[in-house]
Design goal:
The chain has one domain (20-311). It contains twelve helices and three strands; from the N terminus they run ββααααααααααααβ. The protein has helices at residues 20-43, 49-70, 81-102, 107-114, 117-129, 135-152, 162-185, 192-216, 228-253, 258-261, 267-280, 286-303; strands at 2-4, 7-9, 310-311. α3 (81-102) packs antiparallel against α7 and α3 (81-102) crosses α8. It starts with a strand and ends in a 9-residue tail after the last strand.
Length: 320
C-alpha cells in the first residue's frame, strides 16, 4: 500500500484493481446469478414467488452449513451484527420484490432494469464510502449498459406493467444499498461464509413471515402441482443464486472497492441470455452477440483498471 494526501493507494499490478483470485470469484458469482435467474424463471411456473424464495434460501442454508462443517468453520460468527441483519434487506426484501416484479414484466424488461444496479452502486459508493469514481469507470459502465441494451432490448416488451417496474426498481435499490453497506463492514468479519450464512438465515426468516402473511391474506402459497424438474429447479436455483454467488461475491468484496466489484453484475444478463440459448434453444442474432462482446470488454476494462483511492478513514481491506 502507498499513502498519499491521506489516502490509501494500492500498488499497481498486472491485474490492476482486482487480483486473479478476486477476478475469478466475481466472474463466477455472475455466472451463478445468471444461471440461477434462468432456472428460477422455470421454477416460477410451478411455485408462488414468496414460497420459491423460502425454498431457495432453505436449500442454500443447508448447502452452506454442510460446506462450512466440512471445512471446520463455526456456524456462528463474531463480527458486526448489522452484517447478518442485512439479510432482511437482501436477499429478503430485495428478492421478494424482484420475484413479485418478475411475475408481471417480461424477462428482457427485468434485465434492463437490473442493469441499473451497478450505476446506483457507483453513486452510493461515491457518496457513502467516498470512493473516487474516475471518468474511465463512468465511460466503461455506460458502454456496458449499452451492450446490455443491444442484447436484450425488445421494443414489443417495453409495454410492461407499471406495478412490476416499480417493484423491481425497489428491489434494485435494496440490493445496491446492501452492497455498499456490506462493503463498509465486511472487512471486519472473520469469515465470509459466516456472514453469508447469517444474512441468509435472516432472509429466510423474512421469506417465511412474508409467505405466512400472503397465506393469511388469501394469496397462493402452495403449488398446485410440483414436477421432479420443478422441484429440482427450485433447489438448484437456490444453491447457485444464494450459496454459490453470495459466497464468491462477498469474498471478493472484502478486498475490492464496491464501485468496481459491482461492475461484475453487468455480466449476469449476458450469462442468462447465453444460458437460454444453450439450454432452451433460443437463438441470438448478430447484434446480440456484438452487445455481449461490448459488455465483456467493458467489464474486463473496469475490473483490470487500477483501484480508486480508498479514504484513510475507512477500514483497510482484509489481506487474506
Amino acid at each position: 500500500m502507498l499513502r498519499r494526501d491521506g489516502l490509501l493507494l494500492r500498488q499497481p499490478s498486472f491485474f490492476g484493481e482486482v487480483g486473479p483470485r478476486d477476478l475469478a470469484s466475481l466472474v463466477l458469482a455472475a455466472v451463478c446469478w445468471g444461471l440461477g435467474t434462468v432456472i428460477s424463471k422455470a421454477a416460477l411456473v410451478e411455485f408462488p414467488p414468496t414460497t420459491l424464495l423460502a425454498i431457495q434460501l432453505a436449500a442454500s442454508l443447508v448447502v452452506l452449513a454442510f460446506l462450512m462443517r466440512g471445512q471446520g468453520i463455526s456456524l456462528r460468527g463474531d463480527g458486526n451484527r448489522l452484517l447478518g441483519r442485512l439479510g432482511i434487506l437482501n436477499p429478503g426484501i430485495a428478492y421478494a420484490l424482484g420475484l413479485l416484479g418478475l411475475m408481471t414484466i417480461s424477462a428482457s424488461v427485468s434485465v434492463l432494469l437490473w442493469a441499473l444496479e451497478p450505476v446506483i452502486i457507483l453513486l452510493l459508493a461515491a457518496i457513502v464510502l467516498r470512493e473516487r469514481i474516475t471518468p474511465a469507470l463512468v465511460v466503461l459502465s455506460t458502454a456496458a449498459v449499452g451492450g446490455i441494451l443491444l442484447v436484450v432490448y425488445d421494443p414489443t416488451s417495453i409495454v410492461a406493467e407499471t406495478v412490476g417496474i416499480v417493484l423491481t426498481l425497489a428491489g434494485i435499490g435494496c440490493c445496491a444499498a446492501y452492497s455498499v453497506i456490506t462493503r463498509r463492514f465486511i472487512p471486519e468479519a472473520t469469515e465470509t461464509s459466516q456472514v453469508v450464512l447469517s444474512q441468509q438465515a435472516f432472509g429466510l426468516a423474512f421469506a417465511l413471515l412474508l409467505t405466512l402473511t400472503v397465506g393469511l391474506l388469501g394469496g397462493a402459497i402452495l403449488p398446485t402441482h410440483v414436477s421432479p424438474l420443478g422441484a429440482a429447479s427450485a433447489v438448484l436455483s437456490g444453491v447457485l443464486y444464494y450459496a454459490g454467488a453470495y459466497w464468491l461475491y462477498l469474498g471478493a468484496l472484502r478486498r475490492v472497492a464496491v464501485s468496481i466489484a459491482g461492475a461484475s453484475f453487468y455480466l449476469i444478463p449476458i450469462v442468462g441470455v447465453t444460458a437460454g440459448a444453450l439450454l432452451l434453444g433460443e437463438r441470438l442474432g448478430a447484434v446480440q452477440w456484438v452487445g455481449a462482446a461490448v459488455v465483456l470488454v467493458a467489464v474486463l476494462g473496469i475490473l483490470l483498471r487500477p483501484a480508486p483511492a480508498i479514504p484513510a478513514g475507512l477500514p483497510r481491506p482484509a489481506q487474506r
